[in-house]
Design brief:
mainly alpha
Length: 164
């Protein structure tokens, strides 16, 4: 398999997982989410979400490729780095169904914070293996920081109406 194909696969993994997570969520009726009180500061226009996620997930996918192909590091350090990456992706893409299907904002907040922690670990593990990979994952941490803060704010504004 050529290098371009490996890069395409690495970039496609987070994109496909995001697509599946979004597909599960869009099949759910949104009146519950629309009825929640949301802080104006964090209420992102929907038109900006998809292009931002595509760019960030492409960068993190490429970063995972850089770590995977690096031959200078031990197999153990790459395994830990890629496990942190995979775990952060799994938590990230489980967040939408947890939030929308269970309607438990507290549990969704815990999920968002777990995702954020795994992403920070991912950056810390990627950086020594490939400086570029570490830098490419920083926007992912920024996105997850925003998501966690937004989730906490929505939970806070709606804590009387939700059961957690």
């Amino acid at each position: 398999m050529g290098e371009w194909a490996k890069i395409a696969i690495a970039i496609s993994i987070p994109q496909f997982a995001s697509y599946l997570s979004d597909h599960v969520t869009t099949s759910i009726e949104n009146s519950w989410y629309n009825s929640l009180k949301k802080p104006h500061l964090f209420n992102t226009p929907t038109w900006i979400i998809s292009p931002t996620q595509i760019a960030i997930y492409s960068a993190t996918g490429y970063a995972s490729y850089l770590v995977w192909r690096n031959k200078d590091n031990t197999c153990n350090s790459k395994t830990i780095a890629l496990a942190a990456y995979g775990t952060s992706l799994a938590f990230n893409f489980a967040w939408l169904p947890i939030c929308y299907q269970t309607k438990r904002l507290g549990m969704a907040t815990v999920g968002a914070l777990a995702t954020w922690g795994c992403a920070i670990l991912c950056v810390r593990q990627f950086y020594p293996i490939s400086t570029l990979a570490g830098r490419l994952t920083i926007p992912y941490v920024a996105l997850l920081s925003y998501k966690a803060i937004f989730n906490i704010a929505v939970w806070w504004h709606n804590h009387e109406e939700t059961i957690d």
